[in-house]
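Case study 2.
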Amino acid sequence: MNNYFTLRKANRLRVKLLTEKSQEQIREVVCYLRRISWDICGVELICSDLIDIAVQANKDGNELFSVISDAETFVQEVKPSLKRLSWFDFFTVAIPIYLFLGWGIEGVFLYPLVLSVIPDYKIEISFGFLVQFCICTVSAYYLFRHMMEHVGFPPCRHRIKCIGYLLVYVIALYTVGTLLHHMLGKYVLVYIAPWPLTIGCLVIGAFFLEVRYYWYGKDERLVGRI
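Prediction:
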C-alpha cells in the first residue's frame, strides 16, 4: 500500500483513542497547517507526532495542550519544517483540483441544466479567459496562504476575520476577471462542447492527483514511520 495512505489511515485510527479535547486540539493544528502549506506528508507526520504526545499526556490525566498559547507556540515552531510549494506541487495539486472539481464535477451537475435550455451551447475559450485562469490559479495559493497566516491560529476563533479575507479575495479575482473579459474576451480562440471539456477535466484532474499521491507515498520522510 502507498506509505502516505498507510500513515494517514493509522493516524485516523489512533486519534480515536484520545480524549475529545485532545482530538479537537489536533484537528485545529492539522487544519491550520494544511491551509498554510501544501506539504501534505509533512503535516501527516506532525499529526502522528502529536498523537504520540497526546497518548502519553492522556495517560497522565492531561490534555495535549494545557492552554491555547501552547498550541500557538507549537504551530510557529513546526511551520519552518514544512516544505514550501514547488511548481511540481502546484501543477500536480492545485490545477488538477481546480480542473477536477471546478470544471469536472461542477460540469456534471451544471451542463445538463444548461443544455436543456440551450441545446447547442458551446463554451468560449478566449484569450482573456486564459489570462484570467493563469492569474487566478497562480495567485490562489500564495494569496490564500498569506490570508491564513494573517488570520492567525486557531482559525475557528477568527471566523469573521477569515470570512472578511475570503470576501476581499473573491471580489478582487472577480473584478480582475471582469476587466480581462471586457478587454480580451472578444479574442475567442476556440469553442468547445460541454461534455468533452467536462470529461477531459475529470480525466486530467484524476490522473495528476494520482501522480501526486504516488509521489506522496515515495516521500523519504515516511520510510522510518511505516
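The chain is about 75% helix and 5% strand.
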